[in-house]
Amino acid sequence: MIQIEKLRKVYRGRDREVTAVDGVDLTVAEGEVFGVLGRSGAGKSTLLRCVNLLERPDEGRVVIDGRDLLSLRGAELRRARQGIGMIHQHFGLLGSRTVAGNVAFPLEVMGVPRAERARRVAELLDLVGLGDHAKAYPSRISGGQKQRVGIARALAGRPKVLLSDEATSALDPETTASILDLLRDLNRRLGLTILLITHEMDVVKSICDSAAIMRDGRLTESGPVPELLARPDSDLARGLFPLPPADPREGTTLVEVTFVGSVADEPFVSALARKYSLDVNILGGAVETVAGERVGRLQLELPGDPSLNAAQLAFLRESGLTVTVLNPATPEEAR
């Protein structure tokens, strides 16, 4: 649905150039919720604005639903952009218009007749849970309700793609959860493809099917969320499941274990301890449901040096776990 190839955007001033997006390749499948995670200044917002050409890239391609937007001009480009909705961090509502008036605005721009506009606005407000707030003004509703208005407005033109620019970062945790639930529901009910940017790990954990981490204008890792979390070298895994610093005691084997899916419900630690008569020390870890799958990481301490624990490590790997030995003297165990 969304194919970004070698995308590059440079801002030029008198004395310097800033490369905000530096050769990004990204694919978002149809019907997927894809999150781009990164700190402020990483280039996330510029990337998103390049997708709908609010910012025109210097190089690369943006292909949405099979059409290269950069090859379009005039009315053809405007029609293509009507298939892309966008919601903003600070809502962007018109204070002089009612809730209904804000949702109707893009329909007016598109020339939709009045009666059809009214039907569509009522339908959208019901969809986002604001059917009884049509006549209210933005100053009289909460932040979460304002974002629901913004979502309804973004859906006015029946887009196939929805872009979300830090849509929950101005909201409290409870309201954030309700907005994320709404986005996931819309994704499933309408078949929307959603590309969102965020600096919050919990957003990715809550609703994203796939994710990428952006740093200094580049994507450092990208893929389905469960696959990234199963990789011991993944920044996403470390961010969602922080573990204690690796500091193996003398005469022990320090092991990091990651797991995805049904194996998360298996008692592999107790099975290991029984099979080999080991005292296994669990130093830290967590198990959560992410993208609909059980995912977790554990840090285990086994008695004995790694060279003495080959059978035990093989047992863990044969149980379907990804195992990394953290003892610095035995890097071969990490492979």
Automatic annotation (TrEMBL):
Keywords: Amino-acid transport, ATP-binding, Cell membrane, Membrane, Nucleotide-binding, Translocase, Transport
GO molecular function: ATP binding; ATP hydrolysis activity
SMART domains: AAA, NIL
Family matches, as SUPFAM superfamilies: ACT-like, P-loop containing nucleoside triphosphate hydrolases
Key word Cell membrane present: yes
Residues annotated as domain ABC transporter: 2-241
InterPro entries for this protein: AAA+_ATPase, ABC_transporter-like_ATP-bd, ABC_transporter-like_CS, ACT-like_dom_sf, MetN_ABC, MetN_ABC_transporter-like, NIL_domain, P-loop_NTPase
GO BP annotation list: amino acid transport
Pfam family, one: NIL
Keyword Protein biosynthesis set for record: no
Official protein name in the record: ATP-binding cassette domain-containing protein
